[in-house]
Amino acid sequence: MLSLDASAVRLGASAENKTDAIRQVGQILIDSGYIEPGYVDSLLAREKVANTFLGNGIAIPHGVPKDRGLIKRTGVAVLQVPDGVDWNPGDRVYLVVGIAAKSDEHLQILTNLTDVLGDPTEAERLAHTHNPVDIERRLSSGAEPTSPTTTKPLPDDLPNHFDIAIDSPHGLHARPATALVDIAKEFDATIRVRHGDRAGDAKSLIALLNLGIGSGATIRVMAEGPDADAALTALREAIEAGLEEEEDAPVAGGEMAPIDWEGRSIAGVAASPGLAAGPAWQYQRGKIVVAATARDPSAELTRLDRAIEGAKRELAELYEEVKSRYGAGKAAIFRAHAEFLEDQGIIEAAKTRIRDASRSAGYAWEQSYGQQAKDLAAQKDALLAARAVDLRDVGRRVLRLLAERIEDAPKLPDTPVILVADDLSPSDTAKLDPALALGICTASGGPTSHTAIIARSLGIPALVGAGDSVLEIADGTDIVLDGNSGTLVLTPTDADRATAERVQADMANQREEERRACYQPAIMTDGARVEVVANIAAPEEAARAVEAGGEGVGLLRTEFLFLGRDQAPTEEEQTDAYTTMVEALNGLPIIIRTLDIGGDKSVPYMSMPVEENPFLGERGIRLCLNRPELFRTQLRAIFRASKKGPVRIMFPMISTLEELKRAKALTEEVRQEIGADPVEIGIMIEVPSAVMMAEELAAEADFFSVGSNDLTQYCLAIDRMHPMLSRQADGLHPAVLRMIDQTVKAAEKAGKWVGVCGGIAGDPRGVVILTGLGVKELSVSIPSIAAVKAQIRGLSMEKANDLAKRALACSNAAAVRRLR
Ligand code: PEP
Ligand code: MG
Questions:
Q1: Where is this region: Disordered (predicted)?
Q2: What's the 89 CA to ligand 1 centre distance in angstroms?
Q3: Which among 364, 436, 707, 787 is least surrounded, fewest beta carbons within 10 Å?
Q4: What are the extents of the domains in the chain?
Q5: Catalytic residue at 450?
Q6: What is the pLDDT of residues 784-804, one digit of tens each?
Q7: Tell me, which fold does domain 517-818 have in CATH?
Q8: 734-749 helix and 797-808 helix, angle to the nearest 10 degrees
Q9: Interatomic CA distance for residues 214 and 200, integer angstroms
């Protein structure tokens, strides 16, 4: 029997944050002789992929299974933090129970813990006790899991049941138990699990953990209620499949099973898919050396002006280069950088230092932008704070032109490496050569940063937010970067290296196969057809969409024609742009979305008012209706282009029926003015009110296209650009899926069709579910077209319907992603 030793209990600790608390409890495990020091990284890694907060102020950090080799013997340590430490937003922890378990011996501790979990007074007492023996007794009491002492009255067996052995090598610990609970919750039936003489509610994690089910134990799963049979079938299948995420099989086509790397690894955030294996190389910026003072202020003022002008020229060139390689959308960041150099506040602050304090231009500039970047970084608004990276980037660009010398400027080795850096600026990233930069791993940063977006368009696998420890990896260390799961394997074994090689080859073969079949239609195995079209943002992308197998354009984001310039494009310019695209499509349809400015896309020359919540402000159709001339100009250009080929018009951000009616009336006026034929008019469904009014809207619109990026943001109330929260804004959340389901049903009633043009349309899991919900058209990024078509061709509608149905019944996005 495993018991907690009072010497492994540390009372009255304080912890700065969760990482600090985990490190402290890890140190107790080390001092108690339970683990090798390396296992502390494993505790931290687990935290990145799973939540170890149990409830009632208790968390149970434990390592990832593959690091069990670092456990010397099974043991438990407790760190008591009477003032608490923030674990997750809103969750404060007072007892940190670090677990190092070679197999399932720790289940008894978990069982006892779950008793405490159900008793807030007891949890509170243990959080503040001055006697370690109190904690020792409370967590060590009880007997072996198979004959628990904390028995409850035995409920009668329910009529329907099956007995099954738990094969999982670690028993029904927290993760598989969570999987079981998630499945149970999908059914209305009452479901119980019995182990020995105790039974618990299968929809309660605490109740299940309380049963202390070890490896090899036989349990009885019982159900009663309308869908009891279906529940038992689903549970039996899930238990037989192991309940372990790592052992999941891939969904039909498209989705790769997660790889179980053997070597010690660090979990980060997946930012760009693909695998890389090779030597690590720490990317450090060169130190720019400038003199502190200068004798001739007027010469320094001129130097500063020239350097700023020089930096603007560089940025203009960079913009053009990135635009021609990857499109205007990807290049827009460099326009934004140039915008910083128009900021008279920063420039004047530098000039004052030159004039009043005899500073050199370089020193004055460095101080001035450095201060501004510091102020930005301290902003509460995470989006604003993230802009500090951009300001530093552009600041350095000017500073380099004022440098006396640059020490150790980074030069990529001329052999391929995996770049490791604290953070990479967009400029650094755009300069990378994919032949030499095999992968990118950054300690900080988020998946929606421009760096991540550029890495994706360069096709460089990347993971971000891996933590500071990656900065300690020595240059030349052989590592493997898994951009699909966001894992950095620090000590790859021979088997890991072989896996990396095999998977890379498989992926290349698969891409090649998909590319060869990209012009075949996406017809499912049982005959249903799904249109796969492209999301584009620039005229030259229309031809690329066709080359990639696109059956048209499902979303033209016209706002990109308006960004990065000094004034709105004229009717003539817009007509040219739209006509180029219509002609490139050569008879294939294009959906032109009218201007969606506002939110994160602001256009300086439109003098838009500063808003507290721009995503809830004058955005999309609201802006167009408030500025009819802007709207009319665009509509005139669209109708002129419509004479050259099939065009559909789509309004973004429709939230009321009145908006649609007004937009349609204005569009009809313009159409008559131009003398063009009528075109189909559809709307984006991206606001919850549009979903709720879908029946009324369907009577007015010819089609719907679900903007799942925004629909998710507004449905879950999570800013889609938020560097921390946006990870949770998963468009496969059942709340979003139910909205899409409702939209499709309303459209079908009115005989209208529904497409999806948000990110989930290109997500392998999204492809199956959306198709199963009755979505007829998926509009995805150009590089995804071939893969999505191939995936659909390997799928049956029957399977898609089934998965969609089960997804709708799930309780969260993680459960949807676990469905098989
Ligand atoms: C969406 O919101 O899903 C969408 C496709 O529009 P955008 O990403 O341009 O806001
Ligand atoms: Mg949108």
A1: 136-158
A2: 27
A3: 436
A4: 6-141, 160-240, 265-284+408-511, 289-407, 517-818
A5: yes
A6: 899 999 999 999 999 999 999
A7: TIM Barrel (3.20.20)
A8: 120
A9: 15
